[in-house]
Structures are given as C-alpha cells and as structure tokens.
Amino acid sequence: MIRKIAVLALLWCAACYSSGPSLGTCNVAADCTLPDGGQLPGVTCNQNHVCAYACASVCALAEACVNGACELQGPRITSVSAPTAWTSRLLPVTVTAVVDDTGGPGIVSAVLRIAGASNITGTTGDAGLVRTYTFSVPGSVQAAGSETPVNFTIVATDIGGGTTPDRAAGTGQLRIDDRGPTVNGVTVNDGVAVGPAGQQIKWFAQSQATPIAVDVSMQDNGSGVQASSLTLVVGGARIDSGTPTCPGSSTTPTCHFLITPSSIPTSVVPTGDQRQLQFSVTGTDVAGNAVTTNQAAVGIDGRPPTIAFTVGVAGTGSTTSYPALFADCNGGAVNAAMYCGHDGSHFWRAGDGKYNLVFTVTDTFTAPNNVGSGASTSGSTCSIAGSTGACAVTFNASNNTFTFPADFATATFTSATDGTGTVSVTVTAKDAVGNVAAPVTVSNVNVTRVKWMRQVNLPAISGSPILSTSLGLLIVGGNVSAGSDAIFGLRAADGLSVWGTGGTKPPGVPAPPISSITGNMALDATPSTDQTHPTPILYVNSGNSLFALHVAADKIDQYCSSRVSLTANPVGSPVIFGAGAAATVVSAAGGTVAAYTTTLSATGGGCFPISTFTFSNTTPVGTQPALGPPSANGSAVYLPYDNSANTAGDLGIRSIQFSGGAFSSPTSNNLGHQPSAGSNAAAISAAGDLFFGVDVDRKFYRYGADLTTFKWATTAVSLMVGQPLVSGSLTFGSTNVLNAYNTSDGNLAWSFGTSLTQVSPPTIANGSIFVSDARNKEMVAVDSTSHSAKWTYAGSTATAPSTALASVATEAALATDGTLYFGDAAGHVYALISDSSPLMSGAADWPKTGYDNCNSNHAGNTGFVCQ
Length: 867
Fold this sequence. Notes:
Elements: H1 3-12, E1 43-45, E2 51-53, E3 63-66, E4 69-72, E5 76-81, E6 87-88, E7 93-100, E8 107-113, E9 120-121, E10 130-137, E11 150-158, E12 170-174, E13 176-177, E14 182-188, E15 192-194, E16 201-205, E17 212-219, E18 231-234, E19 237-238, E20 254-259, E21 274-282, E22 296-301, E23 306-308, E24 311-312, E25 320-321, E26 338-340, E27 347-348, E28 356-362, E29 381-384, E30 394-396, E31 401-405, E32 420-428, E33 440-448, E34 450-455, E35 460-468, E36 473-479, E37 487-491, E38 497-501, E39 522-524, E40 537-542, E41 545-551, E42 556-563, E43 575-577, E44 584-589, E45 592-599, E46 605-614, E47 626-627, E48 631-633, E49 636-642, E50 651-659, E51 662-670, E52 676-677, E53 680-681, E54 685-687, E55 689-694, E56 699-703, E57 710-713, E58 725-727, E59 730-734, E60 738-742, E61 748-752, E62 763-765, E63 768-773, E64 778-783, E65 789-793, E66 813-814, E67 819-823, E68 828-833, E69 858-859
Parallel strand pairs: 6-13, 16-22, 24-25, 27-33, 42-46, 48-69
Antiparallel strand pairs: 1-2, 3-4, 5-7, 7-10, 8-9, 8-11, 11-12, 14-17, 15-16, 17-20, 18-19, 18-21, 21-22, 23-28, 26-34, 28-31, 29-32, 30-31, 32-33, 34-68, 35-36, 36-37, 37-38, 39-40, 40-41, 41-42, 43-44, 44-45, 45-46, 47-49, 48-49, 49-50, 50-51, 52-53, 54-55, 55-56, 56-57, 58-59, 59-60, 60-61, ...
C-alpha cells in the first residue's frame, strides 16, 4: 500500500488498529512516547485508550485490524439487486444479492432484514466462497395503505460463525405500492354555474354535442397514475369518452377528460330528462391500486322547465291578481255613487302599467334527483297580442317570480257595449342551459274601457265637460234644484269628487248663488300673480248673471258676479279674451255684449264691466235685437241675432270688435235667418270663415268673416242639433246622423248612422271621431277612414251602480292620455279609455262647440293656452 494512502486510512479506520499486547494506556496519540519523550513510530492511541501498533494497510469492509494485521470478520455482500419498478402489496418481491467469503471458511446462510419484520432467509444453488442468494420478500412487509419505499439490509454468516459487519452489509429499497392515487381537485369547464358561491355546479344541455372538458388534478407518490385506466363514473356507469390525457409527471398529473352530454347513457340521464350528477374518478395507479374515494358534480339538463301563468281574482291562487276593487278610483274608497273599472276582475285598457302580470318558472320535478339547471333569469319573454310596444320581463330574485307591466293600450281588443273584453297574453321561458319551456297563453285577460263612472248630484249634465290637465280636474255642471250644487270638480285621474259649488254651504265657505247651468262653462288656468285676479278662474253664465269663480285645491274659495242685462239672461258660453292676469271675459244677454275684469273675494267681489255695447235699432228707435250665444276669432266677436220682433224678417249675424279693452266697429248682415238649432239661437263656429246651421231650412252654411260673402250651403237635413264643427278638410254636422261635409264646397263626404234620432256634437281625435246617439244611448268611436264603428259603449245595468247611458251623451272632452270624458242626462260622468289621442287643431279649425277642452270659445286668442 502506498504509505500516504495507508496513513489516511489509519485516520478513519479504527478496525485497522492492533488489539495485541499493550504498549501502555493513553488518551491521545501524544501519550504514546518513548522514555526519552520521543514518539513511538507506528503507534497511536486506539479506541480502547491503549497505545497500539496500526495495520500496515487499510482493511477491507469485512475485515478488522487485529495485532496490526487485517483479518476477515465475515462474508462480504458485494452487490444487491432489487426491482426498480413498483409492485403491489399483494405480490412478493424478488431480491438477489452476491455474497463473497473469499479468504473465509465458507458461507453458511444469508438473510434479508427489514425493520419490524421477520428476517427472510435467502436461497442459493451456488457452491463455493462466492454465491448468489435469492430472497422472496412478501408484499405484506409494506404497511397497509402505504407507498413509502421499504428499506432493507442483507447480511451473511460463515462456517466459523462470523457475520457480515455492518459496513459490508448490502442495502436497498423495496418499491411496494399499497396506496391508490388521490384526487386533489376537479374543474368542470364552461357551462352555466348554478347555485350559491362555493356550492355552484356547472350545467350543460343534454343536447350539447360539444364535449365538456373536465380537468382533474391527481397525486400518487408511488407507482404513478395509470392514465389508461381512468374514467368518470356515476353509479358504475361511465360518462366520459375516450382515454384522458395526463400530461406532466405521473405522480402529480392533471388529467383532461371529455364528457359528451348527448352520449351519456340513458340509464344515467334519461332522454329528455335532467339530473344533477355526482360523479367519481375511477382507475388505478400503475401498481393497480384504485383511486381513492372522491366525488364531484356536473349537471345535465334535457328537460324544459314549466311555466305557471294564470290571471284571476285575488285569493284564487292565480299567479296574477286583477287590481283590487276601487284601486285607483275615488282615492281608493268604495263609493256607492261610483263604479270603478278596477272592480276586482278587470284591468284597465290603458294606464295599468304600474301593475304587473306575474308568472313563475319551475325546473324541479318529483322524480329523485330530478333537479335541473333552474330558470334562466334573462330567458323569459312576454307578448301581448297586437301590442306595438316592447314587452320586457323582469326577474325578481326576492320571490323567484317573473313580471311584466299590464300595459294593454295597444293590444288587440274588442270590447262589448259594456266596455269589457279580453286580451291574449303569452309568456315563454328557458332554463339556464337553454331548454325552452312550452309557452303559456292566457287568452282571456279581462280588460275594460271603463276607467270610472260617477253619479254626481245633478239631474243632467249640461254642455261639454271642462278638462284641465294642469289642475287634474274635470269640471261639469247641470240643471239643479234650489240650494243644490250646480257645478262639480272631479279629479280626472280617479273620479274623486273634490268640490261642489252653487248650493248651500257651511259658514265660512263661499256659496255663489248659481242656479242651473245650461251651456258651456269656460276655464282660464293660465298662471297669474295678480292677487286681485288669481287664477284659475272658471267663468259661468247662470241665471241672470255672469260668475267668475276661483278654483282652489278643494273648493271654490272666491268669486264675483254681475248682471249683463237687466232685461235678459246671458246666453251660451262666456268668451275668454287674453289670459291670466290680463284676461277679460265677454258675455252676451238681450241686445248687449259686455266685457268684464274680475276682482274676487270669499263673499263675492266685483265683476266689473270695462266695456259694454248694446245693439240698438233705429226703427223702432231704442229697440234691441235678441243676441244669440257669442263666439270669437281674433278680435272679432260673432253673435246670431233675431230682430224679427221689431222688423219682420230681420235675422242674421252681427259682429263687433273687441280690442284694447273696448268694443268697436259693429257690423250686421240680415240673412233672413239666424244660426239656430231647433227654436234656439246657436253659436257660430268662427273657424276663420263662419260656419253655422239654420233650423228654418235645416242647412249648414259657410260665410266669410265679413258676414256677407256666401261660400256654400249644404242640402237640407232632417234635424238641426247644433253648430257645425270644422276640422281640416271636413265640416261635421250633427243631425239624426253624423254628416261629414267637404269644408271646401259643402258637399257631403260621408255619413255615419241611420235615423239615430239625434247625435251629439262629435269629438275629433287622431283616427277616430267620437259621437253619441240618442236612439241607442251609446258613445261610438267612428273610424276616420272607414267611417264605421271601431267600438261602441252603452254601459251596463248589471253593475252597481248602473253604468248604462240614460240619454245621448254630452260632447266629450279627450285627454292627452286618451281618456274620453262625457256626461249624460242622468248626472252620470264617464271616463272611458278611448284608444285615441287628441288631434292637433289647425288655425282654421273649430273642433268643439267650446273650441277647446277649456271651452274658451275663442279661436286665435293671443296668449291663451288651454291648460
């Protein structure tokens, strides 16, 4: 041995020291000295604290240094061969080892040792000092459920009883796998996530042909995941297709599975059905150990949800209830004098958008686990047959209902004569993955045109109702007995009686002495800051006086009145000039026409005439003609007159200018007849030119504004009801039918009705003309193009109170929202939903007897806007 190597070996190999005769004791090598203090050569302090001679060379692993010489202690294990592949605990593992006892007495045996297990004796067919032993190790040496490699050692014994020193033993590991792969996480990709956060599962349509991608992260620290064995199963049935791919390490792979919903066995999800599937990953590791227990979820949905949609009376279990009795009428208080279209079993034809139609969608059925993806919160639709507006469904998470507005304004709707009919409504729905529910149609949703009907304390309604949008009021008047209110203010929206005036009042409440109202009243609602002339002011001709009434929120709180003539009562409707603080009112009585300003008070202020003009005859001197109802266009006031009591055959039209607060320039034309209806003088429609009817010859006429220029006359009619109305190219005459004449030449364009006894003045709207007739006691919507009835309303005696019309209706007032207001001779006031909107009036129109909804009786009135 090279010395340097031997010296280095001596530093670490205690077995290389002699155990021969003692050369003295020691603690360290320096203690081993000669008597003269010199160091003993080749001697050191051994592990027994004895100075000893070292061996001359490094001893082999199975040798020990004895008396300075390396001696063999037992057989050597020169090589060990154990399988590198993992095996199952159910199988034995074969290990081989080469045992070398060269220089020894010969080998007796070899054993394989595993901590905690019995030694395993090897077998060999060899002879001699070098032999190969085989060990059959049972798999059970591995702890159950473990995949940690098992360490082992191999030692041998010789004939002399020497055993392999630890340093010469063989070692190795047994790869025995008794633990299957574990699933760390499952991710289902795409789909529709349903459920609360942290508990959501993904849902897919059963019809989906595109595979669902499922990613499974796994771990196996032993033999590794056997990818080809992996499947996804539900109750033993496989639901995935193909072999998953498991890229990356076999010990920590993420495996990609594919599930084709349409290919899932029908035993798992029947065709056209739905299931929330709890699936497991099955398979083994390479050693055959099964994947440990695991579970994940996916939803497969092939069953459409169901819709519950019914409309009925509240308390009957319908998903939608009709508005409650008297909802939106009379402030909600039931009133025996009033009928409300919200009678508990009807919606209004229009204006019910604040109420909702309600339906529910169910995706859970009675079969076990038959729970679907749930209703799509955005997949429902609604349609109202014939409606032109959008129908939008809203999902309400608080109660899991779907709602949409009950807006039937443009729905296909045919009403009976009581105003009722049905509309058809259809709803659809989907579940979260798109399965479409069977649509549900309710074809008989009850709808009514009747918004409300009120019986006011009047024997009959007179004239056209006043409709004020700014006040929200409908004002009606009529014939009364002494001490009773002659005028009522009703809230247009719901028919609530806000105030009445004219009759006896409690102390402190103004009580203007108004008797019966026989013609139109006029309203000026133009804002005024003049404290002596506050608006709104209602102008009324009643008895022998003109009245100006201030309309407060809940009553008439101030008024004034004035006689126009000491010999005659006012006729027709007042005429408003100007507006607001600058307004004056013109009234005519006898042969006098007068203009007034007003100063109001709670006890009756002053209605002061600022200008008065009396038409006096020169023959006989001082006599006066009888003036008919006035009307105005611009600065001109037009009045029928009858002077035949003073001069035979003297009848016709008179006019006078009113400007700058004064009357001037009176003119007259003796036509030999005056504008009239029956035995009464009738107002002139001052639509630029002058349009009027004459009862004597029962013709309608058109004259120029100069009173003398004749334009045309119609053929005779059977009955003259009132003044003609002008709307664009047509002039309407009310007789026993409704006649429409060409405004240009007076020729008959078309007629509506046959021998209706009497028809009311029409109300002109976009696409419709509203007219009432006395024979049938009904209000009719006449189509402006076909001239046939769109709908007819006569009311019903079956309601409480009765809504049946008692007579021909008054001329109607039409609101911008399409509500048609009118009265009858029994004191009924009606609010019907008409399906039409007001027609914009042209400069040359006179579309109502009062000209506008305020009955201002004045075309071309600068500054006045009906409010």
